[in-house]
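Please go through this protein, sequence plus structure tokens, and consider how the sequence yields the tokens. Keep your notes short.
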Amino acid sequence: MVVSSLKLQDFIEEIRGAKTQAQEREVIQKESAHIRASFRDGDPVQRHRQLAKLLYVHMLGYPAHFGQMECLKLIASPRFIDKRVGYLGAMLLLDERHDAHLLITNSIKNDLSQGVQPVQGLALCTLSTMGSAEMCRDLATEVEKLLLRPGPYVRKKAILTAVHMIRKVPELSDIFLPPCAKLLHERHHGILLGTITLIMELCQRSPAALRHFRKVVPKLVQILRTLVTTGYSTEHSISGVSDPFLQVQILRVLRILGRNHEESSETMNDLLAQVATNTNTSRNAGSAVLFETVLTIMDIRSAAGLRVLAVNILGHFLLNSDKNIRYVALTSLLRVVQSDHSAVQRHRPTVVECLRETDASLSRRALELSLALVNSSNVQAMTQELQAFLESCPPDLRADCASGILLAAERFAPTKRWHIDTILHVLTTAGAYVRDDAVANLTQLIGGAQELHAYSVHRLYHALAEDISQQPLVQVAAWCIGEYGDFLLENCEETEPLQVEEEEVVALLEKVLQSHMSLPATRGYALTALMKLSTRLQGDTNRIRQVVSIYGSCLDVELQQRAVEYNMLFQKYDHMRAAILEKMPLVDHGSREADEKAKESREAAQLSKAKGPVPTELQTSKLLDLLDLLDDASGDTQQPAPPNPSPEGGLVHLLDLPCAPPPPAPIPNLKVFEREGVRLNLSFARHPGTPALLLITVTTTNSSEDDVTHFICQAAVPKSFQLQLQAPSGNTAPARGGVPITQLFRILNPNKAPLRLKLRLTYNHFGQSVQEIFEVNNLPVETWQ
């Protein structure tokens, strides 16, 4: 007995009635077999019913590919009921990956040419959903004709299909430019909304279209003014706002047309002020319109007073009870803080209040904005607020907060003592979350402030006595006690008077060495500090000698080697111990003054070389550099004989420093990326104190007509290298060669292995999100040899 096929409604009920997944699969497999058999029989009456059931099977995630050709047959049918199911099946079962989608091009073309609006609507919906680039090129003329046909039903769908075509094939822009200007005179809001969306897509993808539509800015301003001044309309008003969807879309296209264009910006200034002051923000619809108005004001070349008004609106958003509106306000203020810093500063108390939000996303945005608001005039007050936030903030925000405070203190510290106190507070509160270079920076700062040596060592000793769990704090304290431990025995007027005995200092360092919380690097700091105290303190050094000898058999190789060397100092070279363990001379790492002096000295050296009559020496040094690059591959290579000095040049050679090596040849710059006006250049420099350390400055420039926003550059190197990425100068590259984005990479290459970089770029450009991942293998040889 042959079981008849189920109707669609019965089929759905039976699937929903299945108690297990196995029962569901059994029902679907049985009905799929009936559907296949019906397709083989070729029954034209039952075809659309069987395909409807198959589409439901597809929606449940089961295979339905065998119905693709049936979709084509139904689309070619003259009956509307067949076309409806056939087009729906094509939208669900076909896409660009299947060649079968090209077979319906002729059917769509024929249906678009008919005068039946429902059929034209089906064809347009299908084309806008799964139309490939080839289909768009073949059918663009038919869609362009429908844009100006009477009747809003087909015209709305034709406009949305044109939007899809522009996204697929941007070179079709010229076809749709003329109809858009005529469509702006329509009174139907649906057609206007679609037309403005089409104009936006054209402007984002074609500079010629952008210049063309700047002529219609007055018309767009007129449409928006009519919407703002029109009273309540039951058809279009939402929460008392007249068609907010159309207003938002007009504001977005005005933002694109007014960007970097003075005349268009001037035309829309008055209207934007009117929208900003008259929009009711008691409901979400009004807030959305007002937010888009603010974004438009900040993106175009608006008047200064209008920009202040926009920032004040965002500040008012911060007081809203809706968390989403507050988040949007914080994100927008973070974008404009660089261009309108003083205007955003007025809302600093409100931003600081947002730090106390329980919502993690809000507090993170408030932290980023608070750090961006820090400057030389408010650094002390803002740092105090950020330190209070650091004590109670969630663990996932502590690293960002601690790093932000340290960077702000480094840039805007009013005094060295305040700078030291700020870093100590951060290390005490969140020492485990600070950056890797915090220890080196603080030791550098303390070493350079000779008048604060006694104060620093007392503060660090007290902090270490209270808590030895914060490893960066312990390392700095151990280093400072080892260098300036003799000041502990004296009273410091700037700290609380406390008598410290030599035995207490040694016992505290022993406690650090024995603690299970101490890292191997921390134990190395403590052991070195004990060794240096043997020359700083006046008492007996036998206790220190015993502790050092114990670690001569430590399992940690680095600590063991250090202890063995220190034991040798006690046993064989005790007469040299005081000289060897003198206070460390500090080298100025990366300070601005040092960089400026180094630059001046390089310029002076280049000037003296240009004036001096030593061209032969320059050629000789270049030849020697070339021979060095060969790594002495040929052992019998003879060095060129030095030129005979002339009598006039003898005095010059006597005044030169013969032991100073010639300055290294500059490493040539390298362009590694260029796309649509966005260019990435790498410049290289060697660290003067560490030859194995390569400094790469990444410079991102933008010569296009649109700003590059949310720019992020990430890098990776092989495991044998050590890479540190410094914070970039910003995340926005203005159009037309504005201020570039710079970022410093610090790469340590102790093995002198060939250098390879893998870069990942993400940014927004021309309204699109761009992500590029590429490898740089053509770095100059000088970067790793």
